């Protein structure tokens, strides 16, 4: 019976491709750029070309294909997600920075706003890599902070890279900024936590 079903799928028009859907809908306009052989048996449609085209879009991280029998293919696109925000050189535009250290468009309605803001960057061109080497150090430190000291990670509101030989970290609830080395954020905040506890032991249970 199984073999008969496969044969029916191959040799009948019941499984002819009639519809291709791209999710999320924001990518649906790309359908016009794809060479899709509608009417061909869905099991033999060369969908790899469509996947290759989409994966080369600068915002796309992964593309997967689902076969919705009898006659639809669904392409699911996963975007790169920002791991930090960057303030553009105009002082108004907010961009995302992904885990490949590239600038990307930032849509507040699609992404979490609980991301640290990096200021003082130059040459903020979309889809180009950040030129300041310190950003990779900062993001690695923030990721460690997020994993091991989540409360302090959430309190990081901004990191300024305007000064060439140091960075300035701003924490919510702290009246003064902290000046440190780009690769020392985790230890610096850890030391700050110990300092605050030594200064006021009652903070031990809060921190």
Topology (elements, then pairings):
Blueprint: H1 2-11, E1 19-23, H2 48-55, E2 60-68, E3 72-79, E4 84-87, E5 94-97, E6 103-105, E7 117-119, H3 134-148, H4 150-155, E8 156-160, E9 167-171, E10 178-180, H5 185-199
Parallel strand pairs: 1-3, 4-7, 7-8
Antiparallel strand pairs: 2-3, 4-5, 5-6, 8-9, 9-10
Q: Output the number of helix runs.
A: 5
Q: Could you estimate the helical fraction of the residues in percent?
A: 25-40%
Radius of gyration: 24 Å
How big a fraction of the residues is strand? Answer: 15-25%
Which spans of ≥5 residues are poorly predicted at pLDDT below 50? none
Instruction: Give the helix/strand class.
Output: alpha/beta
- Report the principal-axis shape: elongated
State the end-to-end CA separation: 65 Å
Total DSSP E strands: 10
Record the strand order, biggest sheet. Answer: 6-5-4-7-8-9-10
Largest sheet: 7 strands, mixed
The chain-level mean pLDDT equals 86
Could you spell the SSE succession in H and E letters?
A: HEHEEEEEEHHEEEH
